[in-house]
Amino acid sequence: MTTTPISEAIGAAEIEASFGEGERDAALVAPALTIMDEWRRFGAFLKRPTLDVGVQNEGAPTVLARIYALDMAAMFVLIGVASALIAAGVYIPETALAGMEFTWGIIALVVIGAPVMEEIAFRGWLSGRPGPILALLFLGVGAIGATILQASTPVGGALLGLAGLAAAITALFVLRKNPAMGWFAKGFPAFFWLSTIAFALVHLANFEEGSLAVLLPLVLPQLILGTMLGYVRVRFALWAAIALHAAHNATALSIAAIGGQLG
User: Fold this and answer.
1) 17 or 73, higher pLDDT
2) Is the alpha carbon torsion for 210, 211, 212, 213 positive or negative?
3) Which pLDDT value is given to residue 184?
4) Which of 132, 152, 182, 189 is most buried (CB neighbours < 10 A)?
C-alpha cells in the first residue's frame, strides 16, 4: 500500500484517506509540519469542537509556541484597531490595568494567580470527567455558602468553605480514573462555547464604566484567547491552558507597563 508521508497530512480527512487507523492516530497527535498548518488545525477544531482529552502526547512546547504566536498576532491587530479608533476620536473605556502600580504582588496575581484560578473555573471541567465537574461544583457551593454565612457566622462560613474544598479534593482523587461521560462528549461543542463566552463576559468586570453595547466589543480579546485556551486544554491537559494563559497575561502586562511609561 502506498502511503503519504505524515508531514504532508495536515488535516484529519487527508490522514484518513492516506493511512490506516493506527498511522492516522499517530499523525493526529504529532504537531503539524508548519506553523500555518497548526493554525489550520486550530481553525478546524473551532468549526467542530470535539472532546479528545489526552490524545496529544508529544510536541507540546512546539504547539504551545505556535498558538501563542497566533495569540500575539491577534493581540497586536486588536491593539492596532483600538489605536486607530482612539486617534479618530472614539472613546474607549480604560481597563483595570490602566494607571495600575505594578507591584510584585499584582504581577504574581496577574501572571500566576489569575491563570490558575480562571483555568480551573472555566476549563478544568472541559475534560468531561466526573471528578473535575463534581470538584468544581463542590468548590462553588462551598464558596457561595461561605460568602453567605461570613457576615453572620464567620466560623461556620470558614468551615463550609473548607468542607467544599475537602469534598472537591476527594472527588478528584476517588474519580481520577473515570473517563469522560458520554453525554458530555456529545454536547461538547455547546460546553466549549459556553466556557469560552463565559470567560469573555466575566472580563466585563475589568471596566468601571460604559454601556453593554460599548463594553461587549472590548472583551473580544478574551473571547479569542478563550478559544485558544480551550483548544490547548483539550489537546493536552489543563496545565497547557494555564501555561498559555500565563504567557498571554505576562505579555499584556508588559505592554501595559511599556505603554504607561511612554504615556
Assistant:
1) 73
2) negative
3) 95
4) 132
